[in-house]
Design a protein that fits this description.
single chain, disordered C terminus, binds nicotinamide-adenine-dinucleotide, 38% helix, 361 residues, alpha/beta, seven-stranded parallel β-sheet, binds UDP-4-deoxy-4-formamido-beta-L-arabinopyranose, Rossmann fold, 11 helices
């Protein structure tokens, strides 16, 4: 189905990544015209075909870096963008400790450059991918958006800084609108199994790691600590299905198009699961075994993350509708369909920057 030509056009940076690809499909399903910018540093052009198949239409896709202002100006000059959804960024906590300059450059400077390009094009609406990581080790769970921010690593601080940049921008000019969405723990995949999370190398996150173990690609899961002050001693997290996250972005875009101002909104279910509960859910949902061993705590982990998602209900009329079983089933389906693929190149070749992969329509 091709959306009508008058449909608002949404620029999605990082649109070939994990959450971005699901959001592109959801936006197209709601009649938006979508334009993707991605430098392929943590994704592959192979994702475009299944995304377009799920959208039922072609998606104008530009390969380039959000820190490249001229490139963004070209994309914005060719497309009547009404709002941007800014996923492009780096997200590995450990890497951020080793490479803080890279993280501040991509996550903060990338947001700054995008905001400048949007301002120059007169597009003053942005939905931003933030993270529950900005809370650090929260004193209150479920954690509301008003909780003090105390990010414990450069990744979290770069997200906080980008949020504040957007808040300052909105305060400076009443025409600007920004919604920062603080995701808790995204998991799962599209129910078709054709798009999902494809971590490079050893997965950092729990569900992709379990999926590889259950699929026989790794021998056992290492459970990082069983001495936390939680019911079974393992870490508790608020897992949220990536399809629910995608719907929340559609709602945030609609809200952005209707009003300016700065808002910060948590996206989670308000329900926590321990590591052992996730293992059991995965085993039960997929009729598989997930061997595991308990090892010492992972440095920097906190006992519990849980969203107070009241505001998302009030402002976006959104709540998480898919539970942990569905996340585990969908993650497993994607894993089965993508096992034993050839490794992807780590980065876009420097010799082909800003290549338009499909012409703007
Ligand atoms: P992802 O790595 O799968 O997607 C990010 C996409 O952005 C990738 O396709 C990558 O190639 C692209 N990209 C990276 N740097 C770029 C640049 N400089 N210019 C253009 N494109 C660039 O990650 P994801 O899990 O989909 O996360 C999306 C966003 O959500 C990120 O900003 C991340 O920090 C945030 N977030 C993710 C999680 C999570 O657990 N997945 C949780 C909270 C917040
Ligand atoms: C979940 C639980 C681990 C792997 C991270 C980022 C955060 C956000 C989401 C981007 C914890 C345990 C994990 C494993 C394990 N990303 N675990 N064995 O740490 O809550 O959050 O991803 O914004 O910024 O920090 O998620 O999936 O890594 O861990 O026992 O092999 O699973 O200790 O309790 P986390 P996670």
């Amino acid at each position: 189905m091709t959306p009508p030509r008058a449909a608002p056009c949404v620029l999605v940076t990082g649109g070939l990544g994990y959450i971005g690809s699901h959001t592109v499909v959801a936006l197209a399903g709601h009649g938006y015209r979508v334009v993707v910018v991605d430098d392929l540093s943590n994704s592959s052009i192979d994702v475009l075909a299944p995304v377009e198949a799920l959208c039922g239409t072609s998606v104008a896709t530009y390969c380039g870096d959000v820190r490249d202002r001229e490139f963004l100006a070209t994309v914005l000059g060719r497309n009547p963008v009404a709002c941007a959804v800014h996923f492009a960024g780096l997200k590995a906590v450990g890497d951020s400790v080793r490479m803080p300059l890279e993280y501040y450059d991509v996550n903060v400077n990338g947001t700054l450059t995008l905001a400048r390009a949007l301002e120059a094009a007169g597009v003053r609406r942005v939905v931003f991918s933030s993270s529950a990581t900005v809370y650090g080790d929260p004193a209150v769970a479920p954690t509301p958006e008003t909780h003090p921010l105390a990010p414990a690593n450069p990744y979290g601080r770069s997200k906080r800084d980008a949020e504040e940049l957007l808040a300052d921008l909105c305060a400076s000019d009443p025409r600007w609108g920004a919604i920062s969405l603080r995701y808790f723990n995204p998991a799962g995949a599209h129910p078709s199994g054709t798009i999902g999370e494809r971590p490079q190398g050893v997965p950092n996150n729990l569900v992709p790691y379990i999926a590889q173990v259950a699929n026989g690609e790794r021998p056992a899961l290492r459970v990082f600590g069983d001495d936390y002050p939680t019911p079974d001693g393992t870490g508790v997290r608020d897992y949220v299905h990536v399809m629910d996250l995608a719907s929340a972005h559609v709602a945030a875009v609609a809200r952005m198009l209707s009003r300016p101002g700065n808002e910060v909104i948590n996206l989670g279910s308000g329900r926590g699961y321990s590591v052992l509960e996730v293992i059991r859910a995965y085993e039960h949902a997929n009729d598989v075994r997930v061997p595991y061993e308990i090892v010492p705590r992972r440095s920097g982990d906190v006992p519990r993350y849980l969203a107070d998602a009241t505001l998302a209900g009030q402002l976006l009329d959104w709540r998480a509708t898919r539970g942990i079983d569905e996340m585990c089933r969908d993650a497993a389906r994607f894993q089965r369909m993508h096992v034993q693929r050839a490794p992807r190149p780590a980065r876009t070749p420097a010799s082909s920057p800003n290549r338009a992969l499909s012409p703007a329509s």
